[in-house]
User: Fold this.
Amino acid sequence: MLARERRDRMRGEFVDIGGVRLYYYAAGTRGVGEPIVLLHGFPTSGHIWTEVVPLLPTGHRVVVVDLLGYGRSDRPGRGDALTLRAHADRVVALLDSLGINFAAVVGHDAGGGVAQCMAVHYPQRVSRLSLINSVAFDGWPTRDVRLARAAAPLTRHLPAPWVLSVVRGDLLRGYVDQERGAHSIEKFVRPFTGPEGRDAFLCHLASLDARETMALVPRLGALAIPVSIVWGQDDPFLPVSLATRLHAAIPGSSLTMLPGLRHFTPEEAPAKVADAIGELLGR
Assistant:
């Protein structure tokens, strides 16, 4: 019943942040617990959290963001707007507009890199941090992404449907349930249809830079907040070695491995992800 009620209370809207529109939806109500902010990765959207949100503890305001260039948010006007730091700056500005002083920040994939940026550069705004199959260190982007980026000058002249067919096939490797994966991927790739969408996708590819996460490494050990790390153990994109490195780099962090799961754990194991976030909120 509580899960159904939280779904019914979801509210979505656009907010202008520095001249671009970000889409977010909120669930729950303001309560005694701090708000929870959920950040997706590349090339997905806030849809990835759909099944997690109803399972989160009550008494928290939950904010799910479509980062710039993804989901319903505006397409990027330039590549430098898509760095992890630029995304982090805009999320903080969104929290300002929503009157949220601090929040538990949860990030998946590149959203985990954005969350790390927020925790390092805006420590007063992040009360707790959860990294789920997150980019980290120099362990990303994947070899396939690097090859695709190298081929970008050619790819710009290829038909957009062909480019998307390659993207779909690669993303499916991150799912155990191929039917679920195919359904979600269709939602994820909507912003990248047509020639303009193809060019926007290539802009995202060009922005993926491990130097950003490497620059954060010296400051991870100084994080003075509860941190949880959750990982699908069979992730084909971001190996479990990244999880163990993060765990070692962040004193006091917890590490939860999810056997039999791949990359898209928020979709394929929403209860386990929600439980991990609930445990973090209790620390």
